[in-house]
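> call design_seq(struct)
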C-alpha cells in the first residue's frame, strides 16, 4: 500500500519524486492515554527516525532519537522540542497530529542524524517545522577517549564563567519579572480539561507490568499509577 493512500496529508508536503515513501508505523489520537501506552510498549528501547504530522496544515517535524519513547514524551511535555511544532500543537491541539515512525535503527550504530538529514530532503521546505534541513545534533555519536581527555584538560584550565557564583537579589528579581504578568506565555489563558488530563497522565508515575516469555522479560501492560493497580487488585493504596 502506498503512503499517499494511507495519509493524504503527506502527499502535499512530500516532494513529487518521493511520494511513494511510507512510514513503518502511524499513531493517531496521540492525546489519548491508550495510544500513549501503546507507543511505550511497541517502541520500547527503539531508536530511529520519527515525525509529527499536522492534519490541519500538512506540516511535519522530522527528528531522530536513540529512544523513540522518551523523545515522544519530551515533545508532549514541550521539553527540548521544536518551537514551531509546539506553537502548532498549542494552536490545533495534539489530537490533530500523527506520530510517525519512518525507520528503525536498532541493529546498527549508524549516526542517526545522517538519516534524519536524508528524510528532511524528501519534504518541501515550506511544509517543514524544522529550522534546519541538515541535522547537526550529536545523537548516536560517541567521543573517542582522546577527545574525552582533551575536554577534561580544557575544563581544568577554562572553568565555566559562572562557576562558584550566584545571582544577586536584583538579578533574581529581574529574571522573575521576565516571566510575570503579560510576559508569561499563559497570561490570561487557562488549560482546557483535555490538556489538564494529558498533563496529569504525563506527570503521573506509571506502573509497568512485565511477563517472562521465552526466558525474556517483555513489557505487556502499562497502568496509569499505583493507585489504579491497588484498586484493580482490591488492595489498600498504602500497603
Amino acid at each position: 500500500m502506498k503512503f499517499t493512500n494511507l495519509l493524504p496529508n503527506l502527499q502535499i508536503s512530500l516532494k513529487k519524486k518521493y511520494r511513494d515513501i511510507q512510514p513503518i508505523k502511524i499513531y493517531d489520537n496521540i492525546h489519548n492515554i491508550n495510544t500513549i501506552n501503546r507507543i511505550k510498549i511497541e517502541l520500547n528501547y527503539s531508536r530511529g527516525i520519527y515525525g509529527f504530522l499536522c492534519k490541519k496544515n500538512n506540516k511535519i517535524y522530522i527528528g531522530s532519537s536513540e529512544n523513540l519513547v522518551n523523545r515522544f514524551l519530551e515533545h508532549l511535555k514541550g521539553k527540548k522540542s521544536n518551537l514551531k511544532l509546539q506553537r502548532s500543537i498549542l494552536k490545533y491541539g495534539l489530537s490533530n497530529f500523527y506520530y510517525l515512525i519512518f525507520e528503525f535503527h536498532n541493529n546498527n550504530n549508524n549516526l542517526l542524524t545522517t538519516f534524519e538529514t536524508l528524510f528532511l530532503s524528501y519534504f518541501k521546505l515550506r511544509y517543514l517545522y524544522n529550522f534546519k534541513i541538515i541535522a547537526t545534533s550529536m545523537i548516536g555519536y560517541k567521543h573517542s577517549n582522546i577527545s574525552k581527555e582533551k575536554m577534561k584538560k580544557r575544563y581544568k584550565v577554562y572553568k565555566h564563567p559562572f562557576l562558584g557564583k550566584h545571582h544577586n537579589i536584583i538579578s533574581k528579581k529581574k529574571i522573575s519579572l521576565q516571566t510575570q504578568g503579560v510576559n508569561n506565555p499563559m497570561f490570561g489563558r487557562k488549560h482546557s480539561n483535555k490538556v489538564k488530563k494529558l498533563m496529569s497522565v504525563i506527570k503521573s508515575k506509571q506502573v509497568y507490568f512485565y511477563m517472562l516469555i521465552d526466558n525474556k522479560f517483555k513489557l505487556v501492560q502499562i497502568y496509569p499509577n499505583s493507585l489504579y493497580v491497588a484498586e484493580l487488585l482490591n488492595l489498600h493504596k498504602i500497603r
